């Protein structure tokens, strides 16, 4: 592992997969604070070292990751020494990427095509999420005939995540649950779960509901799809590339459609089985850890 990469913890789930790249990682908070594997929310790989900004003087990284929320100007000395900066955009609109960063990795193909014309001096890559099918796998667990969603700060982020629509659906069906951080105000929030317990939670539900209106490509949909959980989702940004109505998912863009889709799904074991199998096949095709790491390899060289 010759390449040393300095990174900043902003998205534990994504970075758990990112840290599977063949490199040595040195990770801290965006303000230079110390983190632990509990902060990551995933098991810590042996090639991941949690550090503080003070201990950075003992490390000579080859690459620095530029992520949302990072005060990157304070790392200009590293850039001047030849450390390669790579920006990662995981939202529907990009944060301000510094002029000296010439490489940008986008989670969303639609967002990349929309904004890259304003950054013509940079090289752009599209890398979607990647999961290990042996980790995020179907389990023979009895389904609870309930519908799961995964959002953090769900109520506070409101329309952006489709909370008003979800609330209407939840009030009418009485079978919707939410997992995620900062959801104390949501009465049906069941807690925060990380891998591997997260796989058990996904497998215990009968369907997954995504209500987002402005999300580039939520990670949780791909996770749920990989374990074979039938998906009901709004269609925006990159959704049409991966989710096909009544083929590997159900498309529903308003509360009435969502309720109809939930009732349709729960009324048919065959539909559940068909969407489960087709969804996992789709996830293995598009969200496979092997493809993900191969694409990152081309960026990190």
Portion in helices: 25-40%
Outline type: elongated
Say which CATH homologous superfamily of the largest domain is assigned.
Glycogen Phosphorylase B
What would you report as the Rg, rounded to the nearest angstrom?
Answer: 20 Å
Tell me the β content: 15-25%
Top-tier CATH class of the largest domain:
Alpha Beta
* Low-confidence runs of at least 5 consecutive residues: none
Enumerate the strands of the largest sheet in spatial order, edge to edge or round the barrel.
3-2-1-4-5-6-7
CATH topology of the largest domain: Rossmann fold
Question: What's the average pLDDT?
Answer: 94
- Quick one: biggest sheet? 7 strands, parallel
Structure description:
By secondary structure, the protein is α/β, with parallel strands linked by helices. The protein folds into 2 domains: 123 residues, Rossmann fold (3-Layer(aba) Sandwich); 140 residues, Rossmann fold (3-Layer(aba) Sandwich). Helices cover 33% and strands 17% of the residues. Strands 3-2-1-4-5-6-7 form a 7-stranded parallel sheet. Helix 9 links the parallel strand 12 and strand 13. Helix 6 crosses helix 10.
List keywords for this structure.
single chain, 301 residues, alpha/beta, Rossmann fold, seven-stranded parallel sheet, 13 strands, 33% helix, 17% strand
